[in-house]
Amino acid sequence: MTNLFEEPGLKQITVWARGVYENKEARDVVVAVTEAAALEGKFVQAWENYVDLPDRIYVPVRAYGKISDQEIESKYVYENETPDIVALTEETLVKGVDILAGIKPGAVLVINTKRPAEYLFKFIKKGTENLASIVTVDANSLAKSIITLSGAEGATDASGIGKGMGAALAAAIVKATGIVQFESLLKIVENKNAAKKAFEKAQVVDVKTLVNAG
Amino acid sequence: MSVPVKEVPFAGTVPSPKTENEGMITGNWRTRRPVLDADKCTNCLICWISCPDSSVNQNADVVSFNLKYCKGCGICNEVCPVGAISLAPELDFED
Question: Which strands form A11-18's sheet, in the order they lie side by side?
Fold first, then answer.
């Protein structure tokens, strides 16, 4: 029987962050990538998970993006149930949080960290069988996290899209997945310097090599 | 609606805990972990009073931390009068 809800062209992006401190950065990553895709004529959506209650300091929170060649049929589905791309604005989210829940085969994990992917991989207990690669980028060294409540309630964002380290993380996503052209992303983000450096420096590691290494 | 109203939890709220609350395990909020220097600790219990999550355990000799619920806010590190509590990056620890 055919799956009536199947959307072959749809790509889902989930960004995990820490409440208050990186709430804006998580939102910036999905907004920057989806706005860049919109420039390329794709159908897009970006929103935050409000059930996570992001006004609690350090609570793991999620921001979502959807990019599709066709019109998005599942536009009222409130969470990304099968993400293609998972990004973490902060490295300790690999520990104790089920970040890879429901990922599609060939999914990519992007982490803002100084540590090597080999070390972080040891902490991920669930869902690695569908994971294709881990991307590490030290976004904190390229730009600071902008801590603001502007935009947190869906109103206008006074500080600008991709002003902080979210720009670097978005660039790492683009490098690893090619979901949009890097030039399109540069048109959207404010901190173009951080995005360019992150695009150069992001390291992509194949998960197969990590599994074989034990 | 088939679910009785009193069984529907509102947002992230959970019943008030007595000792532990399995519905609100907050250990994964932590980015920094409190580490105790037992030689410096005088067991004055100022950290125990100050901890907003009641994650400091009283012991006979020195205090210990309940890392299942500790959010890593660092208040214990701030209030310790003898500097016995430091904060270490969470990923430095395997467990």
Answer: A43-48, A60-68, A11-18, A85-88, A107-112, A131-137, A203-206
Mean pLDDT per 10-residue section of chain A, whose length is 214 residues? 85 94 91 96 93 87 96 92 96 94 96 95 91 96 82 71 93 96 96 96 94 78
- Structural domain total, chain A: 1
A115 vs B: CB within 8 A? yes
Residue A21 lies in a domain: yes
Which residues in chain B touch residue A57, judged by CB atoms under 8 angstroms apart? 71, 73
Residue of A nearest to B94 (CA): A123
pTM comes to 0.90
Of B12, B72, B91, the CB nearest to A58: B72
The interface pTM score, or ipTM, of the predicted complex is 0.82
Cα(A92)–Cα(A8) distance, integer angstroms? 33
Domains and CATH numbers, chain B: 37-95 (3.30.70.20)
| Residues on chain B touching A18 (C-beta within 8 angstroms) | 29, 31
User: CATH number, domain at A169?
Assistant: 3.40.920.10
